[in-house]
C-alpha cells in the first residue's frame, strides 16, 4: 500500500529523511511519533507528493510517487486524503462548499457531489452544520470538516499530520476515535503523526518512531517512548 525504499530528503547538508525503508499495509492504523524536526511532515509530503525526495522511491500501490507523470498526480491525490493541525478550510465557503470543492476540482458529476457530500458530513456528525462558515465552528468541528473533505473522494489512505495539535484532550479523543472508526468501517489505511502520548499509549496500535530523519523504532501495539 505504502512503501518507501532508501528514501532520502536533503536540505543542504541536512538529511531530513535519512534512508527511510518503510512498509504500511492496506487497512493498517499507524502512529508516527518523534520530536519536532524528526522528519514526520517531510515523510508525509514525499508520500502525497508535496515534496520530491532527493533519492529513493515512494510507492503507493503500483504508483512510484516521485516518478509520476503530470496526468497521474490527480490519480494519487484521489488515493490519499490529508489532514493538518490547522484544518486549512476555506473561510468564505460553508462546510458543505468546503467539502464539495474537492470533488468539483476533480470534475466529479454534480449528482455524485450531491450524494457523497451529505454522506460524509453525516459520517463525521456535522450534517446539521452544513451551511455554517468555519468561523462559526469549534476547533474540533473544523477538524471534522477537514476529515470529511479528506474522505469525500474515497481515498484508500488518510494521512493526519498532528490532527489534534490545537485541540483540548476531550476533543482530541473524539477526533482519534473518529479516525479509528474510519479505519475500521471503510478499511482506510490511516497514518497519524502525533505528540499525544496518552492517545498513543491507550490505543495500542503500531507505532513508528522517527528521530533525526531515521526510523528508530517500529513496534506493534507500541507505547510512546521518549527520544
Ligand atoms: P516534524 O514533522 O517531525 O516536526 P519536519 O519534517 O517538519 O519534522 O522537519 C524536519 C526538518 O526539516 C526540520 O529540521 C526542518 O527545519 C527541516 N525542513 C523542513 N522543511 C524544510 C525546507 N523547506 N527547507 C529547509 N529545511 C526544512
From TrEMBL:
Organism domain of life: Bacteria
**What terms describe the molecular function in GO for this protein?**
ATP binding; ATP hydrolysis activity; transmembrane transporter activity
Please provide the record's keywords in A-Z order: ATP-binding, Cell cycle, Cell division, Nucleotide-binding
Q: Name one Pfam family in it.
A: ABC_tran
The record's listing under SMART domains reads: AAA (SM00382)
What do the Gene Ontology cellular component annotations say? plasma membrane
For biological process, the GO terms are:
cell division
Q: Where is the ABC transporter domain?
A: 2-227
Q: Which family does it belong to?
A: Belongs to the ABC transporter superfamily.
Q: Kindly provide the name given to this protein in its UniProt entry.
A: Cell division ATP-binding protein FtsE
Tell me which species this is from: Termititenax aidoneus
Amino acid at each position: 500500500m505504502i512503501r518507501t525504499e532508501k528514501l532520502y530528503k536533503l536540505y543542504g547538508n541536512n538529511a531530513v529523511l535519512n534512508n527511510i525503508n518503510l512498509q504500511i499495509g492496506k487497512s493498517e492504523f499507524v502512529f508516527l511519533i518523534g520530536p519536532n524536526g524528526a522528519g514526520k511532515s517531510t515523510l508525509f509530503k514525499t508520500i502525497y507528493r508535496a515534496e520530491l525526495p532527493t533519492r529513493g522511491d515512494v510507492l503507493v500501490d503500483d504508483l512510484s510517487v516521485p516518478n509520476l507523470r503530470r496526468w497521474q498526480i490527480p490519480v494519487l491525490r484521489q488515493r490519499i486524503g490529508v489532514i493538518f493541525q490547522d484544518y486549512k478550510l476555506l473561510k468564505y465557503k460553508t462546510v458543505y462548499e468546503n467539502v464539495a470543492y474537492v470533488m468539483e476540482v476533480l470534475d466529479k458529476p454534480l449528482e455524485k457531489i450531491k450524494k457523497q457530500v451529505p454522506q460524509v458530513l453525516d459520517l463525521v456528525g456535522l450534517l446539521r452544520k452544513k451551511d455554517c462558515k468555519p468561523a462559526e465552528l469549534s476547533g474540533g468541528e473544523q477538524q471534522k470538516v477537514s476529515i470529511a473533505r479528506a474522505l469525500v473522494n474515497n481515498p484508500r489512505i488518510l494521512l493526519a499530520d498532528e490532527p489534534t495539535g490545537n485541540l483540548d484532550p476531550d476533543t482530541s479523543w473524539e477526533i482519534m476515535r473518529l479516525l479509528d472508526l474510519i479505519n475500521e468501517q471503510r478499511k482506510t489505511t490511516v497514518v497519524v503523526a502525533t505528540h499525544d502520548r496518552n492517545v498513543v499509549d491507550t490505543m495500542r496500535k503500531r507505532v513508528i518512531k522517527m528521530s533525526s530523519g531515521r526510523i528508530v523504532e517500529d513496534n506493534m501495539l507500541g507505547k510512546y517512548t521518549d527520544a
